Amino acid sequence: MASNLPMSPELEQIHGEIRDHFRALANGFQRLDKIKDSTRQSKQLEELTDKMRDCKRLVKDFDRELKDEEARNPPEVNKQLNDEKQSMIKELNSYVALRKTYMSTLGNKKVELFDMGAGASGEPTAEENVQVASAMSNQELVDAGMKRMDETDQAIERSKQVVEQTIEVGTQTAANLKGQTDQMGRVVNHLDTIQFSLKKASQLVKEIGRQVATDKCIMMFLFLIVCGVVAIIVVKIVHPNNKDIRDIPGLAPPAPSRKLLYLRNP
């Protein structure tokens, strides 16, 4: 259906580039299923992400060009082109969702769980604790238990402070990232607009160049005609009796020379 749509050369070129990107994305995700190494998967996802960025920029160019030509196209053509644009946006969104799925799966694979053994922690074993407790009096046991509880409470308080600080830093980081993301989005949109304007300006310069070349040809042709007319007039003036040279329409032939007659008195 898309190949039978009536499009201008600019729209057809952009549409073809978008379809090429979609084919590359489909092949890339198929290859991604066959890759087992997480590092290679990450690299492949980065390449596919760049392809999706380029595809998003091309869809924006397609939309701008479609709006420029909307007044010149019939309503049914505009409807078909808008439907094709929506179809491309849905297809791009499906690839974006697929990328998110692969990113989530890849992130779960990279989670590492560290299990530290009791012997490596430096803490006494249960047998050692029983031996020490049997050698202590009740008061000493109570004091040791209170001391351990105080140490535990302090450790919990320090952990709470670290958690609160981490949450505060995370909130500030999220706010900064959101602001930077919005700013980057505006910058990307501005760059897309500039690139589109440069493309239109380049096309306009080419059209002006063709018009200038045509005007030069016309001026040269008129100059040759004027030179020919002037040459004929000059030759006609220099050789007025030359019958091989036809008279120029609208130009009076030269007046014949007149001879004066006079009578001589006898």
Would you write up a description of this structure?
It is built from 5 helices and no strands. The chain has 266 residues and is an all-alpha fold. It is elongated and about 150 Å long. The model is unreliable at 111-128 (pLDDT under 50).
Instruction: Summarize the biggest pleated sheet.
Output: none
List the total number of helices.
5
Q: Which structural category do the helix and sheet elements fall into?
A: mainly alpha
* Overall pLDDT score: 77
Distance between the termini: 112 Å
Shape: elongated
**Helical amount among residues, as a percent range?**
over 70%
Show unreliable segments. 111-128
Can you write the helix and strand succession as a string? Answer: HHHHH
> Could you give the count of β-strands?
0
Give the oligomeric state of the chains in this entry, treating copies of one chain as homo and distinct chains as hetero: single chain
Strand content: under 5%
Rg on CA atoms, Å: 45 Å
